[in-house]
Amino acid sequence: MKANILLVEDEENLHETIKLNFEMEGYEVTSAFDGSQALQAIANEYFDLIVLDIMLPEIDGISVTENVRLNNVETPILILSAKNTSVDRILGLKKGADDYLTKPFNLEELLLRVDKLIEKNKRLQTKAQLTDSYIFGNNTIDFKAQIATNFNNQKIDLSKKEVMLLKLLIENKNEVVNREKILQMVWGYNVYPTTRTIDNFILNFRKYFEQDSKEPKHFCSARGVGYKFVE
Q1: H/E stretch holding 102
Q2: Which of 83, 139, 166, 180 could form a disulfide with 88 if both were Cys (CB 3.0 to 4.6 A apart)?
Q3: Verdict on whether the full-model pTM lies above 0.70
Q4: Domain 4-125: assigned CATH number
């Protein structure tokens, strides 16, 4: 699957040059030209990387970065900026940016940094690869066979998507996984009209594995954000 980059740059000629080069490298690119557009895109879509100018109309890049991190979005952020003092770099990194490149920059260096950040993000996504089976709360999941046995010793046939979602939640146990990331990682969508599908899957998991589905202990909701698996 192609990596999806959000490019936030208000200078149109530079924006088009960067976008063209990203696309020539095989990336999918979503464009935003101010901070408000950027935050809207981030709320609606999963990205593998955000490339962000600091001096933007409406909401500046530092505020966008801060907002992203306050909402627990872990997408890597590469700041592009004409501000080249150490104070500016430190501020950007403190607010949550992963890298900082000053303008004017070498295009080859930009592409190299982008590639490294995307690869690092991919490794983090698979940081806790599971074995073929997993046990929690007297429930056993056999991922390879797509079968579970619950606390009542009932056998449950799992669909491929159920297995993928269970793996994603368990690999990120005790951490909230947002809905956009779930849809991207399990369904492969970039833009989604609804997230009701995920809600239905979680309801099924609670019926399968929770002793009291109305008071879940393992599959917990984070209102307005996503879901968390607790062992």
Answers
A1: strand 99-102
A2: 83
A3: no
A4: 3.40.50.2300
